[in-house]
User: Fold this.
Amino acid sequence: MDINNSFITKYEYGKMLYNNPRGIGCNSCHGNDARGRKMVDFKHQLFDKKVYNCTLIIPDIKSIDYETFSQKVNTKKNINLKFEKEQVCEKLIHNANVMPTYFLVEEEIEAIFYYIQNMKK
Assistant:
């Protein structure tokens, strides 16, 4: 599909998908500039009363290469990923599976990536 020969440009199509791919838009977490941001700070207390101060940071997707971007968009979380005992925050965030699965096709992923790379500053 050659999106540049249609009524909407690849940039416009990518922008539309970035803001509303299938439900929640990429911009809701990664920001309107795709630079990521701190989403939330939270505390987690274990049974032994130890308190962990955690921060969920949404990554910058403006500076990554296409292969990494494409791989991350539709990847399911790795349920077999192992964490060290002290990696409580990392394990909680991983298990929360914050990144939605969109089931995007390659043309959609390419359009979103194109938009991100060519965003107005």
Summary: The domain at 3-117 is CATH 1.10.760 (Cytochrome Bc1 Complex; Chain D, domain 2).
